[in-house]
Amino acid sequence: MKLKLELLPSKSLGDFILGMSISDALNIIKQNNVLIDSAQIIFNDNDPLSIDIVIRLVNDGIILLFEPKSQRLRVIEIFDIKKLTLSYRGVVFSKEMQVATFVDIYNKFGPSYPGDFNDSKSIYHLHYPGLSFSFKIPKEFNSLYQESTELPVELPDGTTPMVEKIFIYSGQQMKNPLTILPNQNEDIIICPNNGIYFTKRNCILTFYSSTQDVLSELGPPSKIYHKEDDNMKIHTSTEGSFVQDYFYNYFHLGIDILFDIKTNTVKKFIFHTNFPTHYEFNLYTKCSFKIYGPSTSTQLFNNIKNFINRKSNGNGGSGSSIGELQQQIEGVNQSNSSGGSAIVSKSPPNPSSMNMLEITNSSNFEFNLDQSLPFIHPDLKWDDVQKIYGKSGKPVVNNRGSSSNPFGSTYFYGYSGIIFEVMKNNYIASVCLFKDYKDQH
Q1: How far apart are CA 248 and CA 261, in angstroms?
Q2: Is 406 exposed, middle or buried (0-12, 13-18, 19+ CB in 10 A)?
Q3: How many domains does the chain have?
Q4: pLDDT tens, 31-46?
Q5: Residue 175 belongs to a domain
Q6: 140 exposed, middle or buried (CB, 10 Å; 0-12, 13-18, 19+)?
């Protein structure tokens, strides 16, 4: 059975919408497994950020191109139009036994500027905003379109070329599709041993946050999962009475939150990068986090927390409050530069005389962190992480076996209040945040 899809220039093909996450796209494919029976995922194992992540629907003639850092859909390509039934504004313009021609496209989508001709491939491209069509031109007619502005409406032999490929993208030009797409996840500022700050929601969660606090700020989780530690039961005093802690899984945010079963407060935060070279790929949307150096983590978090409290009390929106917070931050940086101690002894000192925050005085109330300060983000390699956090000791090796993890072992490196899971290609797979009670000042 052929897929029947509606085409919207600059927007979508059926349920595949430009700007959607790769996780959302794969979920659509799973939900339509009766119609879509084969999908290939293509990426660079050693450097997954060097090229687009590609989903190829082999039997449906569709290629989905995802920008590797944001993991958002930026180009939809139809490479075999005969395998689809396509409509525009509710009217079918191409199907298996009646593939659209140049005349059909011109009549359906209207006039356009002359396209461009690829002489080496004998391909003529006709462009509309957010939409391009490719037509195969017989080589004997190449000379007619090499330097001409004529449209190949009708070839000298009386035929009109058929559509060979279709491209849907955001922007005016197929060669330069927009990579900054809507629906980006918000940045999350991670402060080891303290908590996390959601920049768009303008809220914080700490290790004292209850399940109700989390539900109030983030909404209901995608799933509630009770931690299974059966192999640890041997260490419990009573067989069968072992009660597990439990997770709130927020797959759409790329976050897991572990709660203590006794206190029902946060025990750990786990953030996922969703690289295709990890065994948990596609369970989570990529989490956009920022982790700053340990020497400023506590003060940064306190300043954010204090300012949010002031704003909630009606005292945080004035220019004087913003200026006061800025002075506090500058004071922290000065104390750091004069010999303030770091949380992790091996960590390099934080740069001096730099502001950690730029406060936007607006109704949106957003923090803009100083980009000149070094921070850890999901696309940073492990060697660069160590430049910020210092050298780590030997890692704990996680080997699930080739059957469940074809990409090989991952390695866990620990610092005070934070653990990094690193893959063989030197990229971060996940970050675990916990409260290190041994390292409190």
Answers
A1: 12
A2: exposed
A3: 2
A4: 998 899 899 999 999 9
A5: no
A6: exposed
Sheet holding 116-118, edge to edge: 40-42, 53-57, 62-67, 72-78, 163-169, 131-136, 123-128, 116-118
Tokens in use for 202?
A: 């303008």
Label residues 173-199 b or e (16+ Cβ within 10 Å = b). Answer: ebeebbeebeeebebbbbbbbbbbbbb
290 and 353 both lie in a single domain:
yes
Question: Which of 195, 343, 182 shows the shortest CA–CA distance to 255?
Answer: 195
Please indicate, yes or no, whether residues 19 and 125 belong to a single structural domain of this protein.
Answer: yes
Sheet containing 195-198: give its strands across: 203-206, 195-198, 188-191, 289-292, 375-376
Alpha helices in 17-159 (DSSP H): 22-31, 102-109
Phi and psi for 86 in degrees, rounded to 5? Answer: -115, 140
375 and 297 both lie in a single domain:
yes
Question: Is residue 35 located within the same domain as residue 100?
Answer: yes
Question: For 300-341, how does the pLDDT look when each residue is reduced to its tens digit (9 = 90+)?
Answer: 888 888 878 776 666 544 333 333 433 443 443 343 333 333
Strand ranges (E), 28-130: 40-42, 53-57, 62-67, 72-78, 84-88, 91-94, 116-118, 123-128
7 domain-assigned: yes
Provide the β-strand partners of residue 358: 368
Tell me the C-alpha distance between 162 and 283, whole Å: 40
Question: How sure is the predictor about 297, in pLDDT bands with cuts at 50, 70 and 90?
Answer: confident
Q: How far apart are the C-alpha atoms of 377 and 353, rounded to whole Å? A: 23
**What is the pTM (predicted TM-score) of this model?**
0.81
Q: Write down how long the chain is.
A: 441
Cα Dmax for the chain: 89
DSSP 418: E
Domain that holds residue 25: 3-169
Which positions ≥6 away from 379 have C-beta within 8 Å? 49, 69, 427
Q: Are both 273 and 164 inside the same structural domain? A: no
Which residue is listed with tokens 């905003």?
129
Which string of DSSP letters, residue by residue, matches 262-319? TT-BEEEEEEE---TTSTTTTSSPPP-EEEE-HHHHHHHHHHHHHHHHHHHTT-SSSH
Residues 164 and 204 in one domain: no
Q: Which amino acid is at 295?
A: S
Residue that is written with structure tokens 């983000």 in the block: 377
Answer with the one of 106, 136, 169 that is the final residue of a domain.
169
Residue whose C-alpha is closest to residue 421's, from 258, 273, 281, 259:
273
